[in-house]
Each structure stands twice: as C-alpha cells, then as structure tokens.
TrEMBL record, chains A, B:
Keywords: Aminoacyl-tRNA synthetase, ATP-binding, Cytoplasm, Ligase, Nucleotide-binding, Protein biosynthesis. This is Proline--tRNA ligase. Its EC number is 6.1.1.15. The gene is proS. PANTHER family: MITOCHONDRIAL RIBOSOME PROTEIN L39/PROLYL-TRNA LIGASE FAMILY MEMBER, PROLINE--TRNA LIGASE. GO terms for cellular component: cytosol. Homodimer. Gene3D superfamilies: Anticodon-binding domain, Bira Bifunctional Protein, Domain 2. Residues 38-462 form the Aminoacyl-transfer RNA synthetases class-II family profile domain.
Amino acid sequence: MKLSKSFFYTLRENAKDEDSVSSNLLVRAGMIKKSSNGMYMIMPMGKKVLAKIENIVREEMDAKDAQELLMPALIPEEVYIKSGRREVFGSNMFTMNDRYMKRYVLGPTHEELFAVAASMDGKSYKDFPYNLYQIQTKFRDETRPRYGLIRVREFIMKDAYTFDIDEAGLDEAYAKMYDAYCRIFDRMELEYKIVKADTGAMGGLLSEEYQAISGIGEDIVVGCEGCDFSSNLEITEVVDTLQDSQEEEFEIQLVETPNAKTIEEVAAFFGKEPKDFVKTLLYNVDGKIVAFCIPGDRELNETKALKLLKANEMELASFEDVEKITHARVGFAGPVGLDCPVYMDRMIKHMKNFIIGANKSDHHYVNVNLSDFTPELVADLCQVKEGDICPVCGKPLTFQHGIEVGNLFKLGTKYAQSMNLYYTDANNQLQPVWMGSYGIGLERCMAAIVEQHHDDKGIIWPKEVAPFILSIVPISLKDEKQMEIANDLYNYCTKNKYSVLLDDRNERPGVKFKDMELIGIPYRITVGRKAQEGILEFSNRYTGEKEEVSIDSIKSMIDELYKA
Amino acid sequence: MKLSKSFFYTLRENAKDEDSVSSNLLVRAGMIKKSSNGMYMIMPMGKKVLAKIENIVREEMDAKDAQELLMPALIPEEVYIKSGRREVFGSNMFTMNDRYMKRYVLGPTHEELFAVAASMDGKSYKDFPYNLYQIQTKFRDETRPRYGLIRVREFIMKDAYTFDIDEAGLDEAYAKMYDAYCRIFDRMELEYKIVKADTGAMGGLLSEEYQAISGIGEDIVVGCEGCDFSSNLEITEVVDTLQDSQEEEFEIQLVETPNAKTIEEVAAFFGKEPKDFVKTLLYNVDGKIVAFCIPGDRELNETKALKLLKANEMELASFEDVEKITHARVGFAGPVGLDCPVYMDRMIKHMKNFIIGANKSDHHYVNVNLSDFTPELVADLCQVKEGDICPVCGKPLTFQHGIEVGNLFKLGTKYAQSMNLYYTDANNQLQPVWMGSYGIGLERCMAAIVEQHHDDKGIIWPKEVAPFILSIVPISLKDEKQMEIANDLYNYCTKNKYSVLLDDRNERPGVKFKDMELIGIPYRITVGRKAQEGILEFSNRYTGEKEEVSIDSIKSMIDELYKA
C-alpha cells in the first residue's frame, strides 16, 4: 500500500476519553475510532490487523475440521425464552419490536440457534460428530463499556459449537478446541493462562478461560507458587485451614457501640480484630432479600453466592430494604433474629464468641455462637486471597490480572433438551446430543495484543497480526535515486505478495519514523542519503536495532523476513 | 472436504414456504435455512459460496485502491436525524432503546457514519481522493420479505463510499466503481443490465443500478429495440406523443351512472374507451390527502409522484378518507370541486370533453375540459408501457424483469453539508466534500446467480462461486481399489489447494449423483467398476456430458480445471 494514495492518519496527542493503553494507542494509530458508547469503527489500518486475527482463527478452526456458517444477529425472543436464557441475559440483551410488533433480540451468543440448525438433520448417531462455527457480530448491552475494545457492546466473535452423541465424544471435541485455541493464541504471541472458570450464563459441566495476562485485566487469575493450579478467582475454593476454637462459649450479650460503624471502628471499640467478627451482607438476589455471613476479614464471592442460590442476578440490598429488614440503620445487620434467609460461610463453624451486628442502630452482639442462630445453608462463600493455600498442593496462591480472550464450555445435554436436539442411537432410541461451545472475541484479542506488545513509541505488532510486515521509507521525495530504489523495493514486494507499506508521503523523516513506530510495523527499510552509495538502513521494531545494509543483499533479506 | 466427516444434508422434497426457484433450490441443497421471517441461516455449504462472492468483491474493490474498514451496525438514532434520513427510512429501520434509554437504530446503509469517519482527518485537498468500503451486515425491516435471499431483513452488503474535492473527482471515482462492478458481476457470470434509476432514499445527482435479468425480478428494466437506452421503469419518462384534440369544447354535464364503477363499466355505459377518461387517484402522501389525475388508460408512477411532491411515503387513501374528501362512495373521485390539491399528468393537456368522477355516488361528469378545474401542478406522472416510444431514439420500448444486485450513487455534497464534512482548498477556503456511494447485496447476488444458473436437477454454480470445483465420487466404499484411487485423487487436490469434495458417504451411487447435481458442483469424477481397468468417468455439469478418462491423464485434466 502506498501511503500517499491512502486514507491514513495518526494522532500526536493522547486520545481523550480512553481509559487503557491499548485503546489510546489504537486510536492514536488511526486503527479505531469511537462511534458511540462501547462501539468503535475499525478504521482501515485496524481492519488489516483484525483480518489477520480472523484469518488465524479461521485457519486453526478449519484445521480441526470445523465448518463455517453464518447466523443472523436478529433472533426471535421466543428462542431464548425456550432455552430459559431470556431471564439469564436480562438487560444485557438489546431487544426490539419489528414493524409487526414481534419481539426480537440481538444475539449475545448463539447456542440456541446452532441447536436449531443442527436439529434439522443428522438425526442418526452415524452423522456425528461435527463442529460448526461462525465469525459474526455479537451484541451485549453492557452496563459499563470500558477499556476501548476490551469491553464493548458490539463485537466480532468466533463462536463454535460441537455436537456429539456422548460425553466421551464431547471430551474429544473439547480437547481439539483446547488445542486449536492454544495454537491461535500462540500465533498471536499472547502470554496467557488457561484457567477453570464459572459456567455462568452458559451453564453446563465445565468451563475454561484463556486469560491474556495484563494489568488492565478485569479477571483475577489465581495461580500457585508450587504447582500448575490455575483458576479464575470467581470459582477458586477457599481451603478451610481454620482450627476449631478451643474457647469456652459465653452467653450472647447486647452492647451499645456508639459512633462505630465499620468493622475497624467496632473492632477498635472492643479491642478486637476483624477476624473476631462475622460480617453480615444483605443482598437483593433475583428480587429477594437474603443475608450472607462471612468471617470479618474476608470478602464475599458473588459467583459462589449466585451458584449456591441458583440465581441469575444479585446486588447489594438498597438502604431502604436494609432498614426494613434490620429495623436499624445500615451497618448493624447480624444473623440473630434477622427476618430473611441467612447463608453462612463454612469457616464460621470453627469460630466461638464472635461479634455481629445486632439489627439495632448503634448496637452489636458479642459472645455470639452457632447455637444463637440458624443459617439456611452453610457453604464456601468467600473470595480467595493472595497467599491463601492452594487447594491442590498447599503452597501459597498468587494473583495476576487477565483479559478473557477465549473460553471453552462443556455444555452437556442442557441445550439439546431445551431446544429438542435428539438423535437416534444404534438401538433406534432417541438420545439428547452432547454440545460444547467455544468463543473468541476478535477485537478483544486485538486490544490484549496491544496491552502486551507496546512501548513508549507505540504498538509493536507480532508478525502474524501486523497490518504490514515491512515499511519502506524514502527520506526525500525529490531525490530521484531514493525514489527509484524505494519504488523498486516496493514493486519487488508487491510482486511477491509480501505485505508492505511505502511511506511516500511528503512529510519530514521524523514524522514518518514516528508514524511507522506508532502503528507498530515490525521492520523498516529507510532509503536515505547513503542510497547513492548503495547503503540502506534496516530497523527492527522488536529489538530497536538499526543496521546498514548493502543494496545488493536487501532483497534476500526481505525474502527472509517473509519466509520465517 | 470429506462428506463422511461433514455436516451435510440435502432435501428431496421442495421446500415449504419458499416462493422462488433460488430459495427452494438453496434450501434443498442445504445451503440456507430460514430462521424467521426474512432471515436465513447460511449453512456451511452456502457459506462457501458466500465467501467466494465476498472474495470476488473484495479483490475487485482492492484493485481500485478502495480500503476496507468495518463500522458498527448499531448507530445512535441522532446520526440519521442529523442527515434528515430518519424520516426517509421511517419504519424500515429497526430501532431500540439501550439500557439507558438512548435511541439506537440498526444501520440500513452507512453514508452518515462514513462521512463521520472521513471527517476526522484528511482536511486538506491534498489528502483526497479516497475510497472506503466495508463488507458488513445491514438491517431493513421490510414490509414484505420474500423470494428467499432476494428480499430479506438482515443481509451482508458491500458498501463503498468515495470522497473527492470536486465533481470531476467524483465522476472519476464513480467511473472506477462502474468498472469494478462490471468485473464483479462478470466474474459471477450474471446476465445484467445497467440502468438509470431513482436516487430515492439516498438522494444525490445520479443513480445507476445493476439489474440481474430474471423473471422473478421485482424491478422492470426498460430497454429499447432501437438503441442502448436502459432505465428503471420507476424513472422512465413517458414521451408525450399525443396530439392536441381538435374537438370543439362542450359544456360540462353531470350524468347518473348507476351500477357502473370501474373505468370499463363506465366506458361501456357511455360507449367510450378508457382513453376518453381521466382517472383520479386519491393518495395519502406523508399524511396529507392529494389527488393525481392521469389518462384513463394509464397507471400512476408513484416514484415520479413522490419526487414531484418531494415526499417520503405514499399509499392509496383509506376508504374513510376518500369518502370524507369526495362526499361519495369510493370510485367517484374527480378533479372538479375536489377539496384537496390535484396533480395532473401533462398528457391530459391534449384532451378535450373527457369523463371524470363527479364526487357524487353513481355520478360522472362528461364533457370536462381543462377550464373546469385547476391543478396544483402538471407533470409527467404516468408509468411507461411496453411499446411506448423510446425517449432517445423513438423506437418501441421493451420490458424485462430485473433483480437489483448493485447500485451506484453520485451523492454530490448533500451528506458533506449535513454531516459537516469539509476540506480546505488551495486558497484555504472550506469546501464541502463530494461523495459517492456504491452498494452490492451479497446474498442477493447468490440468489440471482441461482435464478439464472439452474436446471431441473438443481443449481449449476459458475466456476468462480462454486462451493467446490470438483467432486470425487467412489461408487463402492467396500472396493479397496476404488477407494485407493479416490483418496489418491483427493489428496492430490488438497495438496495443490484445489477446492474439492470427496463424497465418501455410504450411500447409493444415485443418491450421490443427485446430491452433487443439486448442490451444483461443476465437475465430477466418478470412480466405479472400470477403475480396475484404469478408467474413470468425468462429468461436466455445464454441458451434461460424461466421458471416460484414463487414470493416467486424470491429474493433468484436474490441473487444467483449476488453471482455467
């Protein structure tokens, strides 16, 4: 591509309103441009990167005999009602009426429609297995779009679905996708971890996530100092290492605690530590108020809480609801005499004579024991902390932030049963199909790559996803010799179908160099004054090295770049 | 691709609910499947065709230095309000509120957003021209989706937009796209005509359409026996060849015409012909009732009417409105004494002593003349008829049906002005950018190709869009020699990256042959009994010819297929 003939621009200044390194650099490099909240235009230079990402994904899917198809984005709402997921997605779905007042949604993921597609045919066990996928636009009305391409409301997803006659088949199909995903993210040169995760809105038997390690990541990837344990914070078990308290149980006692509301303030009042408390958190879970009791030095894990209650959504109860249930100001909830179900973390079972809110403003109970209240259920409800014990080997756990770039789900027969996807087995009996579901967010990959591959000059694209592998930069457009050499190299590259950019703009060399660095082209050949003597400059964006190269050897050097 | 390992099916029976040859064949071939009204899943075999169509389009766009990008489908409604097109599209747009009650639409076409993208930069005249395009999903809430992929509510469109500093630049950009489109449709082997058309919802200076000739086409392509005149019926001028009537003007007279309502019945009553009448049609145009008067033997052209009134939408007035305006039952409207604006076709100027409705039930006026009423405007309002006179050469006009597969628009500076897209000229003055807009509907191309390329056995894909060029069909899976040869040929093809299908299903030969014919694979190699003797069968789907070919020459024959 010749820049002089192209729509091309870069921005010198940092982008306003962008809250991540990747979105700032992508905007400045003229690769993306925000069009509204959580939506971006992918500009020509960015589209080249996206196309390369798409190509990697397609190649690796095809290598596993997956077959590409294309679904509509508009789906009748009744499809999701049938599967029971309309409520699960809630207001995360964009919904509308068509002109005849029929309800439609914009598909956030396509398990249902793929089950419909597959149910048309392939009714005999002999027709299995198969793997169908699409690279298609998804829509999710996120509460808080952020970090540029990382959390958007419209994006391209590769979503694949496997269809098998039994669990062993699903395991095999899943293993193939696991392998394909490793190859895909390796080719993108992403540093990632594969972690066990919550099955969430998908449901099913197992989920694993590919987490690109990055400080900006919204997920916490829990690892271990001692073994290869790896898990999303959401589902990591807290190993219960507490010993039963050997204290004698005292009698529960109401104490006035004026001017003390936070755990720290109340602890100071009593001369105790947070771990001597039991915190009570009131939540609105699918419209019902419930209480969660956890040790005072711990945080509640909402994913575990939702799972325990088999619920879809939860948020902290409103001030009004808290005051209604506790008959006190916010901050004094406790499990004794509370007028709602209480779910208790199992570590509390070891505690004696602990302190709780008294459901009375400015009052706490001390010397509380398990006999003083009756929880609905006891379970692991706490967030794991860095330094907690690894559930596998007992060594300390470590935390890293991750961007979820891909996920795998063993769905089992859940969707087959709700969407009527059955096959006849060898005995002519109807059996439900075993499905798997596998997603990759393409724009999010693009952003994650930039988060991991940049420096203060701009983006440093890995070779397989770079918009161009090489730029050719003549210093002076007026110098005939320079232009002749630059054009000759450019023509050589295009003839060989090498992806190359000729910066033949009438700009100062410094501007051109800065732009080539900002947009992250891996290699640059500068055709400057020494071109007269047959000397060119070759720069490597990865190492920052520059070297002088004889014009005689430059073409074989170029060949090497594209061969590797 | 090996069929035994693929998701593949065909249907023996004609598809229910499909109202065109192409949709029936595409459904039966397992290439598409309806998912809801006006929406289809493109199944794996169909996706291969669509990808080839996409590839042709991309290659020819890139050859004209157009640059690909990607826009969101969700666009804030205010963008279309700004350009004035929100009303133009009306209920053809899908609209919704997001979770924060902000209004969004699903883009039916992207002139506005491309103007926004282009306005970010390229502010100097030196930065022009450029051509930006995308291959992206469009949404239109059609009143009556029909004919399978021909009129759908969600489809992939290649939409390109050119940006120039003056009309001469736009002319050049337009000519390049004209040329690219010819190449694109030639490569798809579509028989098409390029016709002048209404600029419609786009507005602008000029529009031309690429009409694939087909009996099912919803557009009428007007041609000429004598010259290369070519125009969409919508905008074709009616050449006014009427001579002024030489009759003496009589006095207008009210006549009771019991039991006569249609023109034919009233004509019979008076012993006259339809051409002696003036028809009065009452319409609701953008919410206002108006009347159109045309000669009794002509039809109203609504496109001309809309254009004349600078209106967006028109439909026949309701019975209630007609009765309110005419104070009579429906069927007796006439321009004399009518309480709404009257628009008159210019051919009526030649007429004398004509018959009209009297705005009184069961009554007509006879001997009506131009002095008896006052039209608001006089213009060409009639639909041209086959056999009318060509406006260029005077020979008779001919009609063909066409499917609009592509269109070109010279937009001029309309969008630049509404969307604030200006550049600074050499004198540092702000000037509006000249835009062009160019669309191709990809699924519609797929359907049009099938409408033109099929026989009673199924689809006959042109080579450049066939899902596979060649199928290899072994007759007996149990015959080791047959399978060895079939696999060897298959491996030879895949090694050479030839697109090939191996039908290794355990099915009867007749089933396999029928399927390969139905899905329209151009060439077939059958490996049957004579394979033992080194003889294979080669079938050509285009000619229907079969020939025996020696196994020694088959690979060079295959090479030829893929070379051509």
